[in-house]
């Protein structure tokens, strides 16, 4: 029995629309999907911003936002209202078209990656068979947005931040792509759903444990490379408040800034979701082989497990950010080109050897 | 002639490389341990939610607030009007105004303390030989009128007599 027959890609709402409007279902269904994606992304951004501020506060012996709502729960709403009513200013000599185009690109990249995120068996907008390739291609748009934003701002600090960010993101994309390639090689599928389904079974069937020892190593390497890809501390040279005022978004105000900010936070969720998909078994519950506990774990729907694992990884990113000091640009580059890349190539070779010997899954 | 650095062999290089990686990870884990400890114990938070908790908020022991003169239950203070505090004050915020009692002895009339000039250095309290003045722990000191910042610290004699009659 193949995976397609076990878990058909149809869901309840889609089937209902198909039965009610058989002719126009192919338009209505994508529109419903896209609207739910927009709602998901905007609510995720709000939740993540609040979470970041609370985590930052408690790690630095503070409370974080406490005034708006109970323990500051409505703070993102207040922030949003503030950002909407702020004046959008454009620096003198800025390239108008590119200046207003730049903030849209990272957000677009985020949306595009979110469309193929496998939240559950039936919760995925599209499942291209080259999903990993698509992610690698599309996430390049956010680098472009940052570079254009820094260039169009007509500000030397913005340009410096953007150039640093471009160099950093392009270098770390190499290791990220190689790690994804390793997982694609092991699971034998490049579609995200296929990768998740290849980890079905017990917790030991997740790629982090299934690929002996090297799975954990490649998981940590993925965490490091994606932190750098996200421009977060300890690799936040693109923003580096103490050196470059705010880096590439120094000159942005109001909604332009908000879009960069949204993209940054939702990208964090996307990276964590990819880590979940590639290493932590996606929407599969962590079964341990004892039938009573497994029955309880199976009661929870898959998207709960997906969001739980993803938010755990998001918390790890925040934990990194509020613990580690920033690295220098030469340390950053030597980390990528002297440590991660050779290790990645070694891992890829070892993965092939393990597969030949039949040790990997 | 430039000094040439002797070339490391591969074993030394790789062992140094690995040691660097492991010590680096160890120190990062130490840092993460500290922050997660703070995160998991919300009691470690030192920020005060000030206007909400003003009833229970206690300033710490060594806080230097405005000077005050403690009085015992009979309304008597320990000040002998020697004026050492007035001389010790770098800002001239203390004026000890003396008067004479019935037997012709010099006693304290008014102890004038100008809070607006005070730097809360505590030199007056240190210099006082009789411990007649102390630093309080008040910190809500704003007023609308500058005149309200000039205080008379001792209870005047007339009031004392009134208190005694009560």
How would you portray this structure in words?
The complex is a heterodimer of chains A (361) and B (166). Chain A is an all-alpha fold. Chain A has 17 helices and no strands. The model of chain A is unreliable at 1-7 (pLDDT under 50). Chain B is α+β, with helices and mostly antiparallel strands and 166 residues long. Chain B has a three-stranded antiparallel sheet with strand order 2-3-5, with no helix packed on it. Chain B has a two-stranded antiparallel ribbon with strand order 1-4. The radius of gyration of chain B is 30 Å and the shape is elongated. The mean pLDDT of chain B is 84. The A-B interface holds A 55, 57-63, 66, 319-320, 322-324, 339 and B 21, 28, 31-32, 34-36, 38-39, 42, 44-47, 49.
Q: Specify the overall morphology of chain B.
A: elongated
| CA radius of gyration of chain A | 21 Å
Would you list the SSEs of chain B in sequence order as H and E? Answer: HEHEEHEEH
User: Would you identify the regions of chain A where 5 or more consecutive residues have pLDDT less than 50?
Assistant: 1-7
Largest sheet features of chain B? 3 strands, antiparallel
What's the pLDDT, averaged over the residues of chain B? 84
How big is the Rg of chain B? 30 Å
Helix content of chain A: 55-70%
SS element count, helices of chain B: 4
């Amino acid at each position: 029995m193949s995976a397609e027959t076990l878990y058909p890609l149809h869901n309840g709402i889609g089937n209902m629309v198909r039965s009610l409007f058989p002719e126009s279902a192919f338009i209505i269904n994508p529109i419903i999907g896209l609207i739910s994606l927009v709602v998901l992304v905007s609510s995720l951004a709000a939740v993540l911003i609040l979470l970041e501020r609370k985590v930052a506060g408690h790690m630095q012996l503070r409370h974080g936002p406490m005034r708006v709502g109970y323990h500051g729960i409505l703070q993102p709403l207040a922030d949003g209202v503030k950002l909407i009513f702020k004046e959008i200013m454009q620096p003198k000599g800025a390239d108008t078209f590119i200046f207003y185009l730049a903030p849209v690109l990272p957000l677009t990249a985020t949306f595009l990656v979110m469309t193929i995120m496998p939240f559950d068996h039936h919760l995925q907008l599209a499942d291209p068979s080259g999903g990993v390739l698509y992610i690698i291609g599309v996430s390049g748009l956010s680098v472009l947005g940052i570079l254009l934003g820094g260039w169009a701002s007509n500000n030397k600090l913005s340009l410096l931040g953007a150039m640093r960010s471009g160099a950093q993101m392009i270098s770390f994309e190499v290791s990220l792509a190689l790690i994804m390639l390793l997982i694609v090689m092991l699971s034998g599928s490049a579609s995200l759903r296929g990768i998740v389904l290849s980890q079905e079974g017990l917790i030991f069937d997740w790629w982090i444990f299934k690929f002996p020892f090297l799975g954990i190593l490649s998981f940590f390497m993925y965490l490091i490379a994606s932190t750098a890809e996200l421009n977060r501390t300890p690799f936040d040279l693109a923003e580096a408040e103490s050196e470059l005022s705010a880096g590439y978004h120094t000159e942005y105000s109001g909604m332009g800034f908000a879009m960069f900010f949204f993209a940054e936070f939702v990208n964090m969720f996307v990276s964590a979701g990819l880590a979940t998909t590639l290493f932590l078994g996606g929407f599969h519950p962590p079964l341990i082989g004892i039938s009573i506990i497994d029955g309880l774990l199976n009661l929870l729907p898959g998207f709960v497990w997906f969001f739980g694992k993803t938010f755990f990884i998001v918390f790890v990113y925040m934990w990194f950010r509020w613990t580690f000091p920033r690295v220098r640009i030469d340390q950053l580059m030597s980390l990528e080109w002297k440590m991660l890349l050779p290790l990645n190539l070694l891992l890829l070779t070892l993965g092939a050897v393990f597969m030949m010997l039949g040790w990997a899954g | 002639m430039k000094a040439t650095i002797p070339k490391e062999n591969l074993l030394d290089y790789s062992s140094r490389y690995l040691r660097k990686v492991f010590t680096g990870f160890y120190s990062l884990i130490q840092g993460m341990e500290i922050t997660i400890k703070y995160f998991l114990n919300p009691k470690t938070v030192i920020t005060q939610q000030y206007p909400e908790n003003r009833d229970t908020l206690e300033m710490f022991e060594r806080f230097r607030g405005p000077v005050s003169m403690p009085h015992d239950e009979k309304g008597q203070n320990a000040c002998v009007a020697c004026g050492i505090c007035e001389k010790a004050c770098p800002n001239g915020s203390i004026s000890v105004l003396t008067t004479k009692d019935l037997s012709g002895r010099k006693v304290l009339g008014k102890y004038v303390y100008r809070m607006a000039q005070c730097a809360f250095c505590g030199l007056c309290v240190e210099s006082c030989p009789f411990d007649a003045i102390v630093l309080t722990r008040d910190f809500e000191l704003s007023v609308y009128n500058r005149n309200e910042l000039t205080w008379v610290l001792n209870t005047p004699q007339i009031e004392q007599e009134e208190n005694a009659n009560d």
